[in-house]
Design brief:
Layout: E1 2-5, H1 11-27, H2 38-41, E2 46-53, E3 56-67, E4 70-78, H3 87-101, E5 106-112, H4 118-126, E6 130-131, E7 144-150
Parallel strand pairs: 4-5
Antiparallel strand pairs: 1-2, 2-3, 3-4, 5-7, 6-7
Length: about 150
């Protein structure tokens, strides 16, 4: 497996992200959906990584710069067939390391409050993220959990 910065131009990552957005829309009310589509990820303030196993995309994640020293973790996903195989931990560790190298002092995230998102919340807690108030443009939402950690 390898983790690579991805320019989001490939068919496989487009399909992988389309499935992600479709799944998030099926689980979350429209006013609470914060998953970014391809256009939302193709902006200068976002760095996007794909996890590849040969030619297959098995995971992804992104970091969006919010302001000097503060970034948001976005679009963390592992393929359904590879969940609970360590991909998300390896990717999150990689993103945290790269963020630190880039001078990021704090990373925050929004994830769902439903049971479906419990494994994600557990992963983030394992990596030192704690609950926090909404940040950036987010507002309080019963369908969202906000977390943050310093580097």
């Amino acid at each position: 497996m390898e983790i690579v910065v991805d320019d989001l131009s490939g068919r496989r990552i487009a399909a992988f992200l389309e499935e992600h957005v479709r799944e998030m829309r099926s689980l979350t009310p429209p006013e609470s959906k914060h998953a970014l589509d391809l256009d939302g990820l193709r902006v200068p303030e976002v760095t996007f990584w794909s996890v590849l196993d040969g030619d297959a995309v098995v995971g992804c994640g992104a970091l969006r710069e919010l302001d000097a020293g503060h970034a948001e973790l976005k679009s963390m996903r592992t393929s359904s067939a590879r969940q609970r195989s360590g991909i998300a931990s390896r990717l999150l560790e990689h993103i945290l390391t790269e963020a630190g190298r880039a001078g990021v002092a704090r990373i925050s995230l929004e994830t769902g409050s439903a049971e479906f998102f419990r494994p994600a919340r557990m992963l983030y807690r394992k990596f030192g993220f704690d609950s926090c108030e909404p940040f950036g443009d987010y507002r309080p939402d019963p369908h969202s959990v906000f977390m943050t950690r310093t580097l």
